[in-house]
What we know:
Elements: E1 8-12, H1 16-27, E2 31-35, E3 47-49, H2 51-57, E4 60-62, H3 87-93, E5 98-100, H4 103-109, E6 118-120, H5 125-146, E7 155-159, H6 163-174, E8 178-183, H7 186-194, E9 198-201, E10 213-216, H8 225-229, E11 236-239, H9 249-254, E12 258-261, H10 265-269, H11 271-290
Helix pairs in contact: 1-11, 5-6, 5-11
Amino acid sequence: MKKSEIRTFGIVGGDKRQLFLAKSISDSCYDVILGGFDKLQSTGALILADVRTSVLESDAIIFPLPSVRNDRSINTPFSDRNVILDEEEINALKRKPVFVSMRDKFLKAYPELRDARVFDYAAKEEFSILNALPTAEGAVQCAMNDYEGTISGSKCMVVGFGRIGKILAKILRNLDAEVTVTARNERDIAYIKALGYKPKNTSELKNVRGYDIVFNTVPAMIFDENLLMNTDRNTIIIDLASLPGGVDFEAAHKFNTDAVRALSLPGKCAPKTAGEIIKSTVFNIIEEVYG
């Protein structure tokens, strides 16, 4: 297949991100068939159909983030139907490029597609970097909703100095918060100092005292029962890490600690931007593979 042969995209399932993704692709002069959006009544220039039509009549298919649920069904929050791909749909997908998130989980649900052209757009570095900004902004929005004071003047800790941690720390400081950032290696700690944040070593966290809001970005169990036992009860903990996360929520409940699991923030807080990021990543994959 050549890039020029892709004229119609099937957008199957997903939340508001996929709707903005579909609109952005349509604005680029492609036909778009939405599947799994039964609750919608109007889609403008987009074609509203069932999942089967979207899969069979499109040249390339984009599944949502996450793509499948634990029962193999496609993630279709805009539909009450439990959609599981049948043999005809799977055979159709074998003949065209398929774009998914969490590819391993998708292929575990549909092993027949292991030899098909299945690309994981969420695994691309550019996708993760671009999503860091709406994730960080969404984290601040969560804090504003839960914290009874202002971010300005608050004492905040950002656990982890990865993509999200870097951007989040900058946003918090721009809002005049007092920002502490943790990292594990000396290079990152040096950067934290150079940027004017207060540094701490993540592996040496034995207690969390004197902070109004803590944001965890590390996908490992940082806030276990021992650390939560030594965390101020009035501290709000916002866990941004992907599942299983970095906070023991049962222990947090036991100690009456206000802990919030904040997942899929780009889709909730900035679906337009998130949809455009998916489009950009998918189009770059198409250019690399089929250009």
